[in-house]
Amino acid sequence: MGLTPRRCYWRPFQPPSLAKHIKALLKQLCGEPKLGSISKDGGSELLEALDKNFGYRKNFRAKYRLVQKLGIGYSGHVFSARGKKGELKDQPVAVKIISKSRLKFATHIEDLQLEVKILKSVSGHKHLLRFYDAFEDDKNVYIVMELCEGGDLSDRIYERGGSFTEEETKFIVKQMLSVVSFCHLQGIVHCDLKPENIMFTSGGDDAEVKLIDFGVSGIIKLDTGSGICELVKRSDPKFDDEPWPSVSPEAKDFVKRLLCKNEYKRMTAAEALGHPWLSDESQPVPLDFLIYKFVGIYLTSTPLRCAAQKALSKVLTEDELVYLRAQFRLLEPNQDGSVSLENFEMAVARYATDIMDDESWAPKILSMMGSLADRKMYFEEFCSAAIHIIHLEADEGWEQTVSTAFEHFEQEGNCVISYEEFCKELYISGPEALSSVSKIVSETLMASSI
Fold first, then answer.
1. Where would I find the Protein kinase domain in this sequence (predicted)?
2. pTM assigned to the model
3. Every domain of the chain and the residues it spans
4. Residue numbers belonging to the annotated binding site for ATP
5. Is 50 helix (H, G, I), strand (E, B) or coil?
6. How far apart are CA 169 and CA 115, in angstroms?
7. Quick one: which H or E segment has residue 119?
8. Does domain 19-146 sit in CATH 3.30.200.20?
9. What is the mean pLDDT of each run of 10 residues along the chain (450 residues)?
């Protein structure tokens, strides 16, 4: 059990790598000598030991009194405690205690440092545990956080015999999607979303929930059942057995789209919040980092690709347009209804935390939008730029969508897109228009054949 958020720092648009953790575990299992216990040339002089001084405060015992052990995790113990003095005097808190003796490799130390950094950065979100402070002494590291006294979701599921109404489920799912989309925007991936890591703030039925355990504990589990992952990869979700026959079609579609095996076709957390099953005008839509990625790619694409995306945008469904309108409003358009690079930069700044540094996705994607510094983008073009083509491809009506988009180009019923029609779509005119479009098409065809 852990009460701190699980760690995984996300690099731009790539899944997190477990390579360093696997290597560290293999070293441990194979009995490789530990750093700090290897002598040079058979002598007694030791190699440089791991530096386990984190620079945290040393006065934990003076500020907090441990009350009760709550659980044991892979990397440490979790206690309830009370403040002895200061702002948290007599207030209940949770303390995760990590023994320095368990930090046997450099990766363990890096993970713990990053965990504390992440906790400090995202602590302000209402559905994440509030981080108070980190301490250390010669033997342990102490991470002090908010205490949730309502138990976890797995306890609630057990107490209620696994029975929740759709409305009760929505209440929990909305809160989790809100915090997950916030983390993704910061470049953080949780990697261990499960009922045990969803805590209730109190025992009431209307208690809010908080996502916990971003720490290093549990990333690699030796007791994981074999064969389960392969079975999941091969199987499709079934909705024949109870309770699915009585579940609404919207809820089933929501689950199907979250379980899509192709991660590029799967809904993002922000998109999931805009799904019809969860649609709620009172629930603000979070900023979707993928929108930035798509707009950046669009602005650096060939005119032919841009024209194709414009055609596809003409056949977006009303639900898709509602979602894009919500994302466009988050950019706070100017009085004339346009946005520029500054709007994108300001939107990111409003939601950014300290974890979003120069190595995060934001600077790289915003640099791809450089052309917007000198021009405006209106909602119609935003739809063309932000369109999720892979999502459209996954839809059962993809062929009809492409056919309709093609008809947008094709004007004369001869099933051929003329250079003149491309000129019209690309807003290119003048004596050199046809030769320019011909060159664009030739270059695109040549690039696609390489």
1. 64-446
2. 0.71
3. 19-146
4. 96
5. coil
6. 29
7. helix 106-122
8. yes
9. 40 41 51 39 47 94 95 81 94 95 89 88 89 96 94 90 89 93 86 88 91 55 44 72 88 90 83 86 79 91 81 84 92 95 92 75 86 93 88 70 70 58 68 76 64
Which one-letter amino acid corresponds to residue 432?
A: E
Distances (CA, A) of 48 to 35, 158, 188, 303: 8, 50, 32, 57
CA 294/CA 303 separation, integer angstroms: 15
Closest CA to 176 of 1, 5, 357: 5
Catalytic residue among 133, 152, 192, 288: 192
Q: Dig out the tokens for 324 from the structure.
A: 């894009």
The residues, ordered by sequence, that sit 6+ positions from 150 with a Cβ below 8 Å of its Cβ are 199, 200, 201, 202, 203, 204, 207
CA distance 387 to 426: 18
Structure token digits, residue 1: 């059990």
- Helical packing angle, 303-313 and 398-409, nearest 10°: 110
Annotated binding site: 96
Burial (0-12, 13-18, 19+ Cβ within 10 Å), 137: middle
Q: Which residues contact 434 (CB under 8 A, 6 or more apart)?
A: 419, 420, 423
For 238, phi and psi rounded to 5 degrees? Answer: -110, 140
Element containing residue 408 per DSSP (H, E): helix 398-409
Active site residue 192: yes
Q: Where are the alpha helices (DSSP H) in 265-397?
A: 269-273, 289-299, 303-313, 318-330, 341-351, 361-368, 379-386, 389-394
